[in-house]
Amino acid sequence: MSDVVMSAEDVRKSFGKLEVLKGVTLDVHKGETVCIIGASGSGKTTFIRCINHLEKIDGGRITVNGHLIGYRQRNGRLVEDSEKNIARQRTEIGMVFQRFNLFPHMTVLENVVEAPIRVLGLPHDQAVFRAEELLERVGLSDKRYTYPGKLSGGQQQRVAIARALAMRPALMLFDEPTSALDPEVTGEVLSVMEELAHEGTTMIVVTHEMGFARKAADRIVMMDDGGIIEEGTPEHFFTAPEQERTKQFLSKIL
Amino acid sequence: MLVAIDWHVIWLRLFHPDGTFARALWATVYISVVAQTLGVLLGLFAALARMSRIWPLRALSGVYVLVFRGTPLLVQIFYLYFAFSWPTLHIGFTVSDAAVAAIVALSINEGAYMREIIRAGIDSIDKGQMEAARSLGMRYALAIRRIVLPQAARVIVPPLGNEFNNMMKTTSLAYTIGVYELFADAEQGYSRTFIADYFIAVAFWYLVLTTVWTFVQAMIERRLAASERGDVIGFRERLVAAWNPVTAWARGAR
């Protein structure tokens, strides 16, 4: 299929003796929003960190836009790719972190234009134009000259989303984007994400927000103990989950 | 024994400096500034080498610190001066070969201390910053330069200021290989007249230099603080802190 943006085949990963991913296989298609749910320790965060090679994998393969991530084939074996190539592959993958990780020494606007200028080599005015458009979209135009330290968690996370989108990535990864937020501001972040989902952004979202998953996800994936145990539409999950483990998890979280 | 202070000598040295004195003062200033600058650069390279993936670089950095922090500076100065032949430089003013040797020895010694300070500064930055930079497609060197070091600077500058304060006083060791700097000037005054008050006068001059520096440092720290997180510490507060010997000791003054 040509419209597969991200494809993971039998991905394995261990931290020392602890096997965190025991063969994860997942395809994500263009325009699709996939939510990954599961208890903590199930490997979902590790899995999406593998997708942009923030974690090395020990087995299997991941491709994004047809490019093998982090590795390259040599004599039929996979060897780790050069730093330069890995960096280039990452420009196609946007990532939003649980703890925002905005650059505190730069203003909101500088945070958003930094990578387009320094990495993509975009002319300054073009990068600023693009950044202002994105800040408008996440509703933070008036904060462009503010330092992140002066923003609320929800505002910071929206800037982080704009920063990732400024690279025009083919795929957006969200690693529990609302887990570090106060309950009253999760809504503003989720509504930005919902909008992105409806506009056809290809997204993989690790989340505990079942309301968001129900509304925005095209597909939900349940992970448990380093593997995918169930996969389906939101209707399937919230009306007739098959696995006992899924039922238990959903009854606890809903 | 009664200690009589010869105020006349002190008065003359403080308020009627002659030509040779001005030369000596200038030597102390440029030796400290150049040696400190080179020391910071060496320390930066050594710190990056220490964190490198290439083990010989790590080992080299370790041996460097072990040797130059573990042996007396005076021994290093003597060895470098007598073991190699150094050029005399004419760059608008004359830098004797001994002064060149002194600058080299002081720089290398200072680099060993700066490595630890810079490494601690880099370590203090949340690793999410590096991850965010890399997820945007930045390569390691760019991420260090644009994201990590500017933030680390805030942590590095206070101890760096102490190092420079020390440096201005430590340059007096250069006297032992015949560099004509502040202390040498006082020593000559003494051997001419056997009036020990030349040393009081020179102590005042060192005090003037370090006091001026305290003000400059406070200004730099204030500027660094202002651009980040919005927690601006008052100018006077910083001055008080810089003068407080207990604080200075706690920051790791030698």
How many DSSP helices of chain B?
11
Side by side, the strands of the main sheet of chain B go 1-2
Percent helix range of chain B: over 70%
Based on CA inertia axes, which overall geometry of chain A fits?
A: globular
Q: Determine the most extensive contact between two protein chains.
A: A-B, 30 and 23 residues
What would the average pLDDT of chain A be, to the nearest integer? Answer: 93
Order of helices and strands of chain B: HHHHEEHHHHHHH
Task: Report low-confidence residues of chain A grouped into runs of 5 or more.
Answer: none
Annotation field: number of helices of chain A: 9
Strand content of chain B: under 5%
The portion of residues forming beta strands of chain A comes to 25-35%
Radius of gyration of chain B: 21 Å
What proportion of the residues of chain A is helical, as a percent range? Answer: 25-40%
Main sheet of chain B, how many strands, which sense, barrel?
A: 2 strands, antiparallel
- What separation lies between the terminal Cα atoms of chain A? 36 Å
Number of strands of chain A: 12
The biggest sheet of chain A amounts to: 6 strands, mixed
How many strands in all of chain B? Answer: 2
Average of per-residue pLDDT values of chain B: 88
Low-pLDDT stretches of chain B are: 229-233, 245-254
- Classify the oligomer: heterodimer
Describe the structure.
- Chain A has helices spanning 44-51, 83-90, 108-118, 124-137, 153-165, 183-198, 210-216, 234-239, 244-253, and strands at 4-15, 18-29, 33-37, 59-64, 67-68, 71-74, 77-80, 93-96, 171-175, 203-206, 219-224, 227-232.
- Chain A is of the alpha/beta class.
- In chain A, the strands form three sheets. A six-stranded mixed beta sheet of chain A has the order 8-9-10-3-11-12, with helices on both faces.
- Chain A starts with a strand and ends with a helix.
- The model of chain A has no long low-confidence stretch (mean pLDDT 93).
- Chain B has helices spanning 7-15, 19-50, 55-70, 73-83, 97-123, 127-135, 140-170, 182-193, 197-226, 235-243, 245-250, and strands at residues 89-90, 94-95.
- In chain B, strands 1-2 form a two-stranded antiparallel ribbon.
- In chain B, helix 2 (19-50) runs antiparallel to helix 3.
- The radius of gyration of chain B is 21 Å and the shape is elongated.
- Chain B starts with 6 loop residues before the first helix and ends with a helix.
- The chains are: A alpha/beta (254), B mainly alpha (254).
- At the A-B interface, helix 2, strand 8, helix 3 and helix 5 of A face helix 6 and helix 7 of B.
